[in-house]
Amino acid sequence: MKQAQWKFGGTQARFGAGGSQGDQDGGMQGGDATVVTEVTYSDEVLAELIYMIEEEKLAGDVYEAFYEMYGLKIFDNIATSEDRHFDALIAQAEALGLDTDQFVFNQPGVFEDAELQALYDEMIATGSLSVTDALEVGAAIETKDMVDIAAAIEVAEGTALADVYENLLAGSANHLEAFEALLA
């Protein structure tokens, strides 16, 4: 199991500072403090995080390819959002001491996970048929993303990582809504 330390706080308490413990403020002197809470993540949570990083990369890479093909702004906008999702997950992984170089430095369309590589290739082939097919691929990506993110939230429940996943879930719901609006 991997361990990480998360820092919270905003007030430092120094009891008995300066030798006076009976001041009106209870002997506390204000300042900035850090409360350190140790969180232990299971191998399952870490494996899920790695998968989610690549899934966010897949979404961004597909949308960038479709933007180049069709020039639709929705693909550019959502690709930018997916890049932010990717960056948020990379930050979480790096905070846990995970090596993320293989994801950060992989070329667009290249994935470590064979299943995601096959999915990317299939989605690009399908979306290359027409702009409608590309929009349908976008909706399919966001639907899959939401299912996978919800599962990731369950295994990381009560952690900072789960909070990041919650934000990604809300973003994916917005993306799905945008694709469905154009398909309607």
Automatic annotation (TrEMBL):
Residues 1-29 are annotated as: Disordered. Residues 49-180 form the DUF2202 domain. Pfam families: DUF2202 (PF09968). Residues 16-29 have a biased composition (Gly residues). This is DUF2202 domain-containing protein.
